[in-house]
Specification:
The structure is a single chain. Strands 1, 2, 3, 4, 5, 6 and 7 form a 7-stranded mixed beta sheet that branches. Strands 16, 17, 18, 19, 20, 21 and 22 form a 7-stranded mixed beta sheet that branches. It contains 17 helices and 22 strands. With 497 residues, the chain is of the alpha/beta class. It is elongated, with a radius of gyration of 33 Å. Helices cover 40% and strands 27% of the residues.
Length: 497
């Protein structure tokens, strides 16, 4: 079908009276794809298109999906331009996803080229009909379950389905590879707390767009949850392809995000898992990518790690140790060793430092360096820390009673950062001193310099309350972090170690 119509002003005026009354969206473009007419329905479907360049506008505003909405269409300006210029009448169905609002609409689109009698292209008419209501409700609900509402990316459920399909496809074909890259924003909570969740949401949306710009055609960005994203890389030759994409991501994130007049720099920790590890289920490769990401996060800012089997072995070992740690509290497997504190002037013992040890039934004596980090991650440190403080104060009171003529005046106890920063820490200390009847001036709490530097305001308040009680404070492992002697003037610390 061809329409022998030149876009004269008289022609347009004649069409306007007809098109204004129609429920469908009608758009007329000239030969340069500029909108020369659109009826009022267009604004409800595509927004204000008057006098805009149509192709540029829709690329700025929308993503395009096929009729099943399971694959984003990587359309280009030239592809659409050529489609509009083709002779005759074309009809297609598309799902348009608005990038900013994350709303979507199903459209049945009819395109007709406008030709003069000498077959000279003069423009196009586009008729768009909203067919969202006619789509099967079950299909629409199913598709919505696969899309992240905030970013418009696919979600975890879709990724797991995609991985499952690829695992079946590559079964027994080790030469066909894919990879899963998992990303986690470092310190994203700080952004939410300081700038608000609206800025945090905008950052996640902007980040997803930058990630998409780093990928090849056919690769996929997925928002898993919160500040975690995944990237699915299909049909790659080796791990170098995945690390190349990772390097590209880090280069892209060097530039700040400018949101509501705020300049925000971000760091991401990345884990990579390849499909060549005999995976049977989709969640296994996602688990290993997450494990690699956790290892990267421990190394510091902007690091990536590729999964290896040693990581899994260490993870299993850590899980077993965590389970044993929970039982250790119930079975009273912890013990305190006491290291004497001497007064150098006369070599008199004036107190003790309480050192925590775990008497494991199978592994023997375990030092805190091997289990404190697990205790902090699981929250068990609060139970353990309370036990240590109570036991040390109780023992010190016994010694003072037994050796009343001695100069035992100090019991020093290490306190975890997690424990020290709890809102009820002061009350816990006061209750223990009251129950053990130990003078507060005899208690010295040891904290690390990292606690002071990273939590300045909250720590200062806690320290001041402890000092009011008469409790002494010591900075443990001074010089191993990044504080300075001048920085210490902000805190009333009694001793350095």
């Amino acid at each position: 079908m061809e329409c022998n119509l030149a876009l004269s002003s008289d022609s347009i005026k004649g069409l306007q009276s007809v098109f204004k009354t129609l429920g469908d969206a009608i758009i007329i473009l000239d030969e340069f794809q500029k909108v020369v007419f659109c009826n009022s329905t267009v604004s409800f479907i595509l927004g204000n298109c008057n006098n805009c360049y149509f192709i540029r506008r829709i690329f700025q505003e929308f993503k395009f999906y096929n009729s099943d909405r399971n694959r984003e269409l990587k359309l280009t300006h030239s592809l659409i331009k050529n489609f509009l210029k083709e002779k005759g009448h074309r009809e297609l169905k598309l799902y348009l996803h608005h990038k900013k609002s994350n709303d979507g609409i199903w459209l049945n689109i009819i395109v007709t080229s406008l030709q003069e009698r000498r077959n000279i292209f003069k423009g196009s008419t586009i008729i768009c009909r909203d067919i969202s209501q006619s789509e099967q409700p079950e299909t629409a609900r199913s598709n919505n379950l696969l899309i992240d509402r905030l970013t418009g990316c696919h979600n975890r459920k879709f990724l797991l389905q995609k991985i499952e399909g690829h695992l079946k496809k590559i079964q027994g074909k080790r030469e066909i590879l894919f990879a899963v890259i998992l990303l986690d924003l470092d310190r994203f909570k700080n952004i939410n707390d300081s700038l608000g969740h609206e800025i945090g949401d905008k950052l996640l949306i902007s980040l997803s767009r930058r990630l998409e710009a780093c990928l090849r055609h056919g690769d996929l960005v997925v928002r898993l949850d919160g500040d975690e994203f995944a990237i699915f890389l299909d049909n790659i030759k080796n791990i170098n392809c995945a690390t190349h994409i990772t390097d590209r991501i880090y280069k892209e994130l060097i530039l700040p995000f400018n949101l509501n007049e705020h300049e925000i720099f971000v760091d991401v920790s990345i884990g990579i898992a390849m499909s060549n590890s005999d995976y049977q289920q989709s969640h296994e490769i996602l688990r290993d990518a997450d494990l690699a990401m956790r290892h990267a996060k421990k190394l510091g800012k902007s690091c990536y790690q590729v999964f290896n089997t040693e990581m899994q072995a260490r993870a299993m070992e850590a899980l077993k140790l965590e389970n044993d740690l929970r039982r250790a509290i119930e079975r009273e497997e912890f013990t305190l060793h006491y290291q004497p504190i001497f007064l150098l002037e006369n070599r008199t013992i004036i107190g003790f430092e309480a050192l925590l040890r775990w008497q494991h039934p199978e592994r023997g004596l375990i030092y805190p360096s091997d289990f404190i980090s697990i205790a902090e991650e699981t929250g068990l440190i609060n139970f353990i820390g309370t036990w240590v403080l109570k036991e040390a104060c109780h023992q010190m009171k016994i010694w003072q009673s037994q050796f009343s003529n001695s100069s035992l005046t100090i019991i020093s106890v290490n306190v975890s950062g997690k424990q020290f920063l709890k809102a009820d820490f002061i009350e816990h200390v006061k209750n223990i001193l009251e129950k053990t009847n130990l003078d507060a001036h005899c208690l010295k709490l040891e904290i690390t310099e990292t606690i002071l530097v990273e939590n300045n305001r909250s720590v200062l308040s806690t320290i001041e309350q402890l000092k009011e009680l008469g409790i002494q404070l010591s900075m443990d492992d001074f010089g191993t972090g990044y504080s300075s002697l001048s920085y210490l003037h902000n805190f009333p610390i009694n001793t350095l170690k």
